[in-house]
Structures are given as structure tokens and as C-alpha cells.
Amino acid sequence: MYKQLIAALSLPALAFAAKGTHCPKTCVVDSSAHDASYAIEKAFHDCGHETGEKRGKVVFKKDETYNVRRVMNTTGLTNVDVEIHGTLLWDTDIQYWLNNSLPVGYQNQSSAWVFGGENVHWTGFGYGTLDGNGQVWYDFINGTNNYPGRPHQITYTGMKNSVIEKTRFVQSQMWTMTIIYSENVLLEDMYVNSTDTKQEVGFDFSSLNTDGADVIHSNNITIRNWVVDCGDDNIALKGNSTNILIEDQDWYTGLGFAMGSIGQYDGNFETVENVVVRNVTAHDRMRYAAYFKTWTGVSRGYPPNGGGGGLGYAANITLSDFKLDNTSGIFAITQCTSYNDARGECDTSKFNIRDITLENWSGTSTSAVLAELQCSGASPCTGIKYDNVSAYIPSNNTMASHYLCGNVSEPIGFECTDGLWEENNR
Fold first, then answer.
1. Most CB atoms within 10 A, among 280, 323, 401, 407?
2. In sequence order, what are the beta bridge partners of 270?
3. Can 232 be counted among the known catalytic residues?
4. Model confidence over 62-99: pLDDT tens digits?
């Protein structure tokens, strides 16, 4: 599976990076207006809908700041190159965004910019920047989880055969980006930093919900060579994410790679399948290097902060070549997510987690727990495999040695040493 997945994800990247041979129709976006959103939408309208071998180009000028004061919808694009040389800076009128942000199409989430198209090549050349002015949001929400109407910085929806690369995403309002209803997309050479500048970051992150990226209802997605410093999941795969490659990652602050949350919609069947996450460095402000989270089997409340009772499975997921740099935790599974962090009912989820491999993990951690596996009694985890996984604890000169298990059937490469020490409903 591993080699087949790598081959499947690598070949399309070469194909959809190719460009037509005709001179592109070019629109240079004017930054002089009080609100640049109108000029941005017009540029994509005029130069973002070419056909056949023809291509269009939308250019944001170097050393220019584009003030964005309203929501933008630039979807249905075809054959367009996007060059971000300057900075897009979002306005801080919180009440406007709360009342006008655009629906993402999942978990009642919303977005400041909805962007989508086919045969799109987007580049920021390593310096082009999207700045969400996130500090005003971190102050405003004051730790409230999934504040209604709080917008994601950008949602890539309906993307197909496209490349997004070499762009800086800083101080996102909420999730940095959502990739949804997309297929055959390469996201490469990205820098993401959404951390609170006013107070020390802990694991009750003040910049809560600033995920680096969330993939939903998408297939054949490659996320390569990212630096992520955020206040929540560094990269998350949610419902119906299949054939995903995440590699060459450098994560400084966050919760780690997340499978989930999932199982939030009562009776809905969702999958996360055929995933490789490899060559990851998790630094000392990381809660985990990776973790999986599902909702309980009991539906309470409504998304985004409520739900449960969902069905499906996560399977064929390989987490390979992780380097731990004094992380607080290592790897966890919890099937206890519930309405507003309610406790209990951890044995009720029918969402199944199976065939998960951790291989070649090493480095340092403050935790003595190599595995914290809180699986559901209604659908126990199977095929959980550890191969050459270790962590050294510098504070006491010992190796992590505890495997905490609940409802783990026939683990491979390790033996459960303890029951669960406490409920983890993260």
C-alpha cells in the first residue's frame, strides 16, 4: 500500500503543474483602493476563466498591501496562474466577519475567502503573504472553542489538478485553510504561523482553532515541505479524506497530525483511508506528534461543538520517520469527543480505527507514554502496529515505556502495559 500510494500521489503533481504555451491574459490587481476585495474579484473574473490551451494570470504586486474588508468568492476558475508577490491583509471589523463569513460546507464552519478551480497554479515565491490579522480574534474569543461565524482565512473548494505553493499564511483568523471537495492537488513549500503574540502559549491555546490545514471530502492530496506554528491541529484529515500524502514537515507549536475529529454526524458514514505521513519533526511545544479523535456514539448538540453517533472507519494509515524534539506527548487515540467537552460514553462510538502503523519514531519527550489508546468498546481498534518506535526522557534519563490501552485488539509490536490513566476527550 505504502509504495502504491506514493506513486499515485507523485505522478499527477507533474501533470497538473504543466502550463499552456500561449501568452497568458494578465490582470494586475490594483492595491490602492480602501477595500481591495472588489479589484481582486474583478481580476479573477476577467483573467481566471480560460479554456483549452489558453491560460490567464492574476498578479498581486510586490511590496504592496491589499486591504481586504469583505468576504470574497472566486470559484469556478479554470486555467489560471496566481502570483502573490505582495500581502493580502484582512480587516479587523469582527462584527462584519461574524455576520457575513461564507459557509464552508462542513461543521457549520465559515470562511473569509472561498477559492476554487481547475488547473490552477498558485505561487507566493516564498514571500507572498496572506495575513488574517488574527491577534484581534485571539483576544476576542478568549479561548472559546469554534466561535460561531469566526472565519477561516481561506477555503480551497472544488480544486482539481492544481498546485498551491511557496506562500506564507500568518495570524489566521481561525483555521488557516480548508481543502474541501478537491482532487489531485499539491500544496508545497508553505509557511504557517498563527500564534498569540500577547501571552504564553500553553495547551489551552489562546489561539485555539488555528489549524494549519484541514482536508475534508477530498482525494489524492499531497502536502509537502511545510513549517507550521499554530494553536491547534497542525494538519488534520476529516471525513472522506482518501489517498493523502503528508511529508517533510517541521512543526513547532500545535497538537500534531490529527485524524479527525470525525464521527460527528449521527448515522453518517465517513472514511479516512490510504494515508502516509512521513518525515515529520515535532518540536517542544507540540502536545503530540500525532493523534486520532472521534466523537462518541451518542449524539448531543449540533456541530461545530456538538454531535456524535457517526459511522465509518479510518484505515491503512502509516506514520513514518517522526523525530521528536522534547514533545509533551507522543501518540494518542481517543474516541471520547463529545458536546462541549462532556465526559464519559467513550465506549459507544461505532467508528472503527484499524490498520495503523507507526514506524521509525525517535527523539526526546517529556512523556513516559509511547501509546495512549482509548478505543471504543463498541468497535475496538485492530491492527495497531509499532515498529522501531522509541523516545528518550532527558529529565530522568529513561526511555518511555508505557502503553496505555483500552479496547485495543491484538496489538502488533508492543504489549499493553497499563490501563488508561485518565479520560482524554480532547
1. 280
2. 312
3. yes
4. 999 999 999 999 999 999 999 999 999 999 999 999 99
CA-to-CA distance for 62 and 125, rounded, in angstroms? 11
19: its cell numbers:
502550463
d(CA 264, CA 241): 15
Query: Which residues does 262 contact at the CB level (< 8 Å), separation at least 6?
Result: 238, 239, 270, 272, 293, 294, 295, 310, 312, 314, 351
Instruction: Give which of 288, 251, 256, 423 is closest to 366, Cα–Cα.
Output: 288
Cell 468568492 -> residue: 73
Of 81, 189, 214, 232, the catalytic one is: 232
The pTM of this model reads 0.95
Tell me how far apart the terminal alpha carbons of the chain are, to the nearest angstrom. Answer: 30
Q: Which of 30, 37, 124, 57 is nearest to 85 (CA)?
A: 124
CA 8 to chain centre: 21
Q: How far apart are CA 146 and CA 141, in angstroms?
A: 9
